[in-house]
Amino acid sequence: MMLYRIHTKQKLPIDVEEAWSFLSNPANLALITPDSMGFDIISGADRPMFPGQIIQYYVRPMAGLKIRWVTEITHVVKHRYFVDEQRFGPYTLWHHKHFINPVDGGVEMEDIVDYKLPFGILGRLMHNLMVKKKLQQIFKYREEKLTELFGRFPNTSKVIQMN
Distance (Å, rounded) from C-alpha 160 to C-alpha 148? Predict the structure, then answer.
């Protein structure tokens, strides 16, 4: 079994309340997802985040392939963190932790995603050929979009680590 991890950090010049307000609103996920992903929320984004919330959407990870994805918000600590886990979708495992940490002059957002692909060796091959690159593009887009929406934190760069 091959378990992969994405670990990103980004500082933004906003306070914890503003960061939480934006990030804990499931409808905003569409704003920070590349248009090429064909992200379309079906249900579950009509109210603020809470433990047990089920969010359903469609994504198009590649042309011609439309996938239904269902996630559950499993943990929420207001102004600190929340966790979403895939219940149905393209991964065998998807566990995504979102942290909001106060820092001088703003917040540091930290994402840790642990995931596993189906199909054994074929899944590992697909990870190396395209999945890893696609996820890097999605998180890079997210960084750029959040900077566009909230401004650049002085003297920082974003860190993306993947195994």
Answer: 18
